[in-house]
Amino acid sequence: MLGDALLDQFLTTPPARNIFRMGQYSPVSIRDQVVRATYLVDRLLATRQLTPSTRLLVIGAGAAGVTAAMHASKCGVSQVELVESKPRALSVQAGSRRQVCPTQYDWPAEHWGDEHWPLTEGPPRSFTAVSLSPPTTLRKRAAARWATSFGNLLTARPGIKTVFDTEVDTWRTTAANDFEVDFVAPTTPPAIGPRPVIGTTKADLIIIATGFGDERTTIPLTTSSSSTFEGVKFWNDDKFEEFDFGMSGPDRRVLVSGSGDGALQDFCRLITGMPTVAEIWKQITASKSNWWTIKLEAAWHWEDHARRAAQFAPHHLKAWQLLMRLHTRYTEIVNELVISAEWANVVSRLDAYVIHSGPAGESRPLNSVWLAVMGEHFESCYPLNRVVVLVLLAYIRHKAAGHEPLLLKTALKSTTSAHAGKCAQGCWGKSHEVLLAQNVVNGTKPSEIANWKDTRPETYEGLVIRHGIQPAVVNGTAPPIIFQNLPLHLP
After folding, report:
1. 151, 278: one domain
2. Of the N and C termini of the chain, which has fewer Cβ atoms inside 10 Å?
3. Strand-strand pairing, 254-257 and 369-373
């Protein structure tokens, strides 16, 4: 430990002098990563572990890595090297039309709908705890446009050397007490064993920003013990917002498997055709009657209580029990809306986007989308995602009588579909025979689903697999993704 509360949050495991990591923390929105990187560089400068003459090596050119490199350069560090295994910076977002908004998940704070960051200072925002000077301004736009503008700023920034199509393999501490770092060529799939060194560099301080890990978007193929089926990744371009989900056949059944932020966002896009939950929420709350939204302004208090309770509660009280209480509280408030006079107005406003949304007046197939949740509630997620999905579930039940879109205690186990490979490469819209694990209790580990005996077969034309994150290997270990108690929500 360094004795600095913030820098200690970024130490590798085990701690190593002058090596810091980013990426294995929640929350992981783009803005959170930008703020996290800015915090780290500012504190390194304040403690003089980073100086204008420091040779800084940043590993990974995603949102956090690019921010760290640009902010260090802006603050006077003249020797910054940024290494990325892909051909360009921000490659994950570079081809995606998914909308990115830097403030929507600050809801219910009053600035959540501003759609840009940093926020304007001054009343009524004088509560701001820190004043950050980011490398660029974030504003709502498609991910690809955001990545391009950020990449252009990186290219124009003097003092930064970028090295693409290159991975950092190992490093050694030299007699001069700095680091000698070996570069290797990336391989697909990742190579096992030593690889030829294609170059070396020297560094005084290393920031590891290789990301929080790989998405779990695969399930086993029942017909093969070694093969897997891979669904559309979160940042892949998709057709979820099209009225027919981009499917040409008569059957358009879609299963969204997962209960975290990724699954909830995509469920919302499939149901409404709107690109963000913020836009859906604005329709839900467009009425002049605000009694219900005032009740929901307590959401931050509920979320904060759940976070603290998870850390300090007695051992017999499990994390899933705390989330169940939180989920129940939101459900109760949504149920109050459904039985109120305001509900008819909410239904009418949602109808304007959902009903007759096709090019020839076709309606979106509301009774063709299911959300499979492992356990009895959603996982830890942004409160806006949670409440919007609960309202949409009530809306679907209202409009599609007899259709239950929420499959509780259900997990996607495997598929016997012959369409092996990636949905993005042609199987979207084709029939998928799947096995669903039933009666899955809270706290079940994903690895246990492979041997689950209580199953039932179903058929879907689209599978959206959002099973969380496989943590990235950092310094030889794969540390778990943890909630980082930093004031990242502040502007």
Report:
1. no
2. N
3. parallel
